[in-house]
Structure formats: C-alpha cells, structure tokens
C-alpha cells in the first residue's frame, strides 16, 4: 500500500511539473485525473465501510473450554459494485480460530458472499466475545484502508472442561484408597444383599456366600462422612478479564478433575467454597456428578470472597477435620491458609495443596499449576 501511495504522489508531482512547464488541456486533464482518482478511491472505501455485512454462527449454545467447535462466518456484499479487498481480524485473547489464514484478503462481487467454515477453540471458562473482532476494507487502488470494529459480535458462555486423570502420582502421599472410603462411609450391619458388579469385594460375607452359593455383601448403615474434602479458592483477584479468567478457569478445572477422579473410584467428596456465603457441594456417588458439574460451571468468583472468609468458614466445619484427606486448590498461600493447614495436620487428616499461579514459583509440599499447564502432566 505504501508503494502505491508513493506512486500516486509521484504522479501528482509530475502532473504539477508538466503544468508548470507546458500547460495545455492534456496537462490539466492529467493533473485532475491524478488528483480526483485518490478522492474517488477514498469515497469507494468509505462506502464499503458502511455497507459491508458480516454474519456469524456457532454450532453450540454452550462451549467447553479447550474443546473445538465448528464456527461459521459469512462476508456479504449486497451492493451493485464489487468490494476489492476485505480482511478480518479475530478475537484472540481468550479464543483462537483454527485452519484459517488471518492475512487472507477477500474480494466480493456484487450480491455475493463468502461463507467460511472453520474451528473455534475457547481457552477459558467464562463469558466473552469471540469470532470476528475487526474488519479492514481497502480501495481498488490500494491507497486507503479503513478498519472498524464489528458491531455484531458473538458473546459465548464457556464452561470448564473435565480432565480425566488416570493416576495422580503427585498426590500418592495422601494414601487415599477405597479402604479409607469404605471405613468412613458406614459401619457394617448384619443385613446382607446380593452382590452386584461394582461392589467392593471386601464387603462380601463369605460364610453366607458359601451357604447360598452366590455372592452376598453386607449392607452398611450409619453416618456418612466424606473421605475427601476439597477447599476451593473463590476470590476474584482483579477486575481485568485477562487477569482473572485464566486463573479462575484453572482453579475450576483442577477442582473438577480431582472431584471426578476420586468419585469415580468410590471415594466420597465434599467441595467447600465461599460465594456470598458458605458453599458445600457434597457428592455421595457418581449419580451426583451431573448436578455438581452444572453448579460448579456456573460458580461466580467475587472480590469479596476473601481467604479469611473461606478459611473462617471451613475451619468450623467438623466433617473437614474428620476427612481422610483435605486438598486445597488456591491461588495464594496466605496466612489464613497456613493456619488452617497446620491445624488439620495436627489431627488425622492428610493435606495437599494445588497452588494455581503463573508466576513460575516453587514451594515445598505444594503442587504448582500454571494457567496453561496440562493437569495430566502436572498431576501424573
């Protein structure tokens, strides 16, 4: 574009020189042609600017972080003349477009459009704009260009992804097994029932099994006590989305992954947080997973949900101290956290800490997880 502008400027200077030395209708005609052409070109680009149309569509109403979804956008020319050059710029802070060259320039003939099918990936949980952010239009001589913000952007709701953790070697020190879960769940009773696939073999009544020639397991009654307690940080650290979105996404992702990992292995889980008040999400078995996932996906972080409020609440919950293990998912190892951790370690509960931060720090007895780290790699 710079080259074309220099050529236009050179022709204008040349026309002025010709007029000065020779004059005549041809010289003046050449001068006015060189002078008017850029003006017409600028007007053309301005008309395209105001008359250009963009249409966007996504194949899903609710998106999952890091999961690709089909994204369509259409560039439409509804005028009687062609649009020479159209370029699109996409939102890239929290999402990415796969399989499309951002430097591609499109030419649209009258009453035609170009529909592109590509892939959209949202990086973080939350609500934000995706798709076409800005459009740049240029004239046919490549002298002028106008960039403008797309007025009809798409705002999507993104929920956190579920990461399946096959093994968590970094948390083996907790020594949480089905033995812990079985002990904490209930006390055995004399009642029995038929064995069904999935029952713990340690609950089989072998004497009755031998007498009836079919597997029988003891029924269990008593007070339900969670085997695992997860304390989730719910403080919003900033008003700027680029600071709080990655952090909150990873906190929820870690909490969801850990909850599912233990729940799938028959270990009960209670998740504690603070959201304008104490929050306790208890999961007895995998049947509770759907409601828990929906609830945690809509969880709202708040600047007022400080660690003092969170640990002030959780330190007074008796079930946490009775847990086989307590896992902290936090963004900062402050004094309130240290006090509660020390109190728990004086009892029988094992503790572990997942520190979510992007500062590249290390801490003893702490699993540090960066915003862009893969949980399978960090926890395995």
Topology readout:
Layout: H1 2-21, H2 25-51, E1 53-58, E2 62-64, E3 69-77, E4 83-90, E5 95-98, E6 106-108, E7 112-122, E8 126-130, E9 132-138, E10 145-149, E11 154-159, H3 178-185, E12 187-194, H4 206-212, E13 216-221, E14 228-232, H5 241-264, E15 269-274, E16 278-283, H6 289-297, H7 307-314, H8 318-322, E17 325-330, H9 335-345, E18 350-356, E19 367-369, H10 375-379
3D architecture notes:
With 380 residues, the chain is α/β, with parallel strands linked by helices. Helix content is 33%, strand content 30%. It has a 6-stranded mixed beta sheet with strand order 16-15-14-17-18-19, sandwiched between helices. Strands 1-3-7-5 form a 4-stranded antiparallel beta sheet, with no helix packed on it. Strands 6-4-9-10 form a 4-stranded antiparallel beta sheet. Helix 1 packs antiparallel against helix 2. The protein is elongated. The two termini are 53 Å apart.
Short description:
This protein is an alpha/beta fold and 380 residues long. Helix content is 33%, strand content 30%. The strands form five sheets. It has a six-stranded mixed sheet with strand order 16-15-14-17-18-19, sandwiched between helices. Strands 1-3-7-5 form a four-stranded antiparallel sheet, with no helix packed on it. A four-stranded antiparallel sheet has the order 6-4-9-10.
């Amino acid at each position: 574009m710079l080259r074309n502008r220099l050529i236009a400027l050179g022709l204008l200077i040349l026309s002025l020189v010709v007029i000065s030395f020779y004059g005549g209708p041809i010289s003046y005609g050449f001068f006015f042609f060189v002078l008017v052409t850029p003006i017409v070109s600028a007007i053309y680009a301005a008309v395209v600017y105001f008359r250009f149309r963009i249409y966007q569509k996504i194949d899903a109403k609710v998106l999952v972080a890091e999961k690709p979804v089909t994204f369509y956008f259409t560039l439409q020319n509804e005028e009687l003349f062609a649009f020479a050059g159209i370029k699109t710029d996409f939102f890239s802070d929290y999402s990415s477009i796969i399989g499309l060259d951002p430097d591609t320039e499109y030419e649209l003939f009258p009453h035609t459009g170009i529909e592109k099918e590509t892939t959209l990936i949202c990086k973080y949980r939350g609500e934000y704009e995706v798709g076409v952010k800005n459009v740049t239009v240029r004239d046919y001589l490549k002298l002028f260009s106008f960039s403008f913000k797309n007025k009809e952007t798409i705002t999507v709701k993104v929920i956190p992804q579920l990461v399946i953790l096959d093994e968590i070697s970094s948390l083996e020190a907790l020594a949480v097994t089905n033995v812990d879960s079985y002990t904490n769940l209930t006390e055995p009773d004399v009642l029995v029932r038929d064995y069904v696939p999935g029952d713990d073999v340690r609950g089989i009544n072998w004497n009755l099994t031998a007498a009836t020639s079919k597997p029988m397991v003891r029924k269990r009654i008593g007070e339900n006590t969670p085997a695992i307690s997860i304390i989730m940080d719910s403080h919003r650290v900033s008003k700027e989305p680029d600071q709080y979105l990655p952090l909150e996404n990873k906190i929820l992702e870690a909490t969801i992954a850990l909850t599912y990992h233990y729940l799938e292995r028959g270990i009960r889980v209670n998740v504690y947080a603070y959201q304008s008040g104490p929050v306790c999400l208890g999961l007895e078995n995998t049947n509770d997973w759907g409601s828990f996932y929906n609830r945690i996906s809509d969880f709202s972080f708040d600047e007022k949900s400080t660690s003092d409020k969170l640990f002030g609440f959780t330190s007074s919950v008796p079930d946490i101290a009775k847990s086989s293990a307590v896992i902290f998912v936090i963004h900062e190892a402050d004094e309130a956290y240290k006090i509660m951790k020390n109190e728990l370690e004086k009892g029988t509960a094992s503790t572990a800490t997942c520190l979510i931060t992007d500062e590249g720090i290390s801490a003893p007895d702490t699993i540090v997880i960066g915003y862009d780290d893969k949980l399978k790699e960090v926890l395995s």
